[in-house]
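Two proteins were folded this term; both appear here.
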Amino acid sequence: MNKRILVVDDVPDWRATLQEVLNSKEYEVKTVGSYQAAMEIIERRAAELVIVDLRLSPTDEGDRQGMDLLKKLAELRINSIVLTGYSEPALQEEAEEKYKVFDFIDKSTLSRNLQYLREVVSDAFERLGEIQEKKDNAIKAASALQTVSFTKDLSSWPLPRYRKK
């Protein structure tokens, strides 16, 4: 089964670029351009990882629907990565500390090295796989009537110590 990624960005060129960069046999990538379209997919639990642009309006400089989306993702315990052209320190701190984003990436940095996004996504799914393996082992042990302790390292959200540069 493919790992499902949702890309939420109001700019069609960025959506197409990210779809191309991430598209592989390993990932199923869906792209949408609005908060509402993203919520339709998220509410169906049709993505394990969501890449979110903070500003989802091409005409409103004050738009921060991406932050609203991060809040919903945190409530639903879905991991996220921020990809934005408006990387204000206060927004980055809020995204990392309050919504536990896995990484916060400035688009200007990414435009020079698209491979970096692949590495971040790969790292996120690698960590999710490790957690799933631990869960499977705990279930096997419990099925065999062995003593099992359920620790925080069995939680898939937030990913163990979200990325810090």
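Next, the second protein.
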Amino acid sequence: MIVRSIIFLIINFLGLGVGSFFTKKGVSSTWYQSLSKAPWTPPGWVFGVAWTCIMICFATYMAFVWKYTVNTKTLILLFATQWLLNALWNPVFFYYHNTTLALIIIIALLILITIFIGYYWKSLTIKSLFIAPYFVWLLIATSLNFYIVLKN
């Protein structure tokens, strides 16, 4: 269980690293700072803390799912799609400044995490709470991205 968690943690942070490689200065960039942002936008440091906690919880969740799943092909497909969407959002938003496409990506990611919850709930039950921080953060992040699309 611990080894699987560590493997998923490494893969998750690799995805975040790939995404952040293209973000330039990200939240501290002049472009981002000049955007009209939602009043509920957290300070920049919250994003790093949130994603660190989310990826730790998600790695634990994935380790549990891997243990209980019968269909590893479906799990790998869902996980790989999640990884790709997560890695794509940062460059699309921060590097290409395409806030609308970023919104589409984050909505797809939110739907995918919802599918994870629904598909694996029966196997994991209460252990599904490990994916809750990811789901909640995506709701917040989607609202922030949507606000930026509407107001800029």
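Residues 99-124 form the longest helix (26 residues). The domain at 2-33+43-151 is CATH 1.20.1260 (Ferritin). These notes refer to the second protein only.
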